[in-house]
Amino acid sequence: MAIDSSETLPGQRGPADHERRTQILQVADELFRVHGYRKTSVTDIAKAIGVSSAYLYRFFDSKQAIGEAVCAMALSSMGEAVSAVAERDVSATQRLRDMLQTLLSEGMRLFLKERRLHDIIVVSIENQWAVTEEHNNTVSEAIEKIVADGRESGEFERKTPLDEVCMAIRITAAAYAHPVLLSRLGDTDEMETKLSAVTNLILRSLAP
């Protein structure tokens, strides 16, 4: 995972571009992947770096703050991919298909192939960390743009309130971007088949 130390991260202290902060996040990311978030302590991270736990608290308020920073960076790749799809110069219909496919592909990569990231995302959802809410907002904004563009182009119906349509799509698509729900959808081929069926149903409901 690329670490952007210039980003303002949840619960951080001191200068955002400090090289020690970057090191803390890199080491925490590695330990979370090996041992899982729940089994990794601030002491473990400090020992791996060769500093005291007190020193780490100069940069982050708590273990959760470190976890939120790592979680934010993990989710940012999915959010950026979804936002990029929403901006493509193709039909809204194609963008909606591509966005749902992107959610599935990124979800499988983050939550199933990298199991320890699955663990930290579950923790973030269970504890309602702000980073997950920000991620949900990013996905919702992408959906709203695509649907609004589709209405403007005449691809989608305009009678149903926009917020109602976007909420329904977000809820329907949640299974493909949620670590626990995604793991219950079967193997890759089965997931793709289910996604195709869901996408076709959504598009039929949006037809003018």
UniProtKB/TrEMBL annotation:
Region entry Disordered, spans: 1-20
Keywords, comma-separated and alphabetical: DNA-binding, Transcription, Transcription regulation
Gene3D superfamilies documented for this protein: Tetracycline Repressor, domain 2 (1.10.357.10)
Superkingdom of origin: Bacteria
Annotation: DNA-binding region: 41-60
Keyword Transmembrane set for record: no
Location of the HTH tetR-type domain: 18-78
One Pfam family from the record: TetR_C_27
Protein's name according to its UniProt entry: Transcriptional regulator
Organism: Alcanivorax xiamenensis
Lineage: Bacteria, Pseudomonadati, Pseudomonadota, Gammaproteobacteria, Oceanospirillales
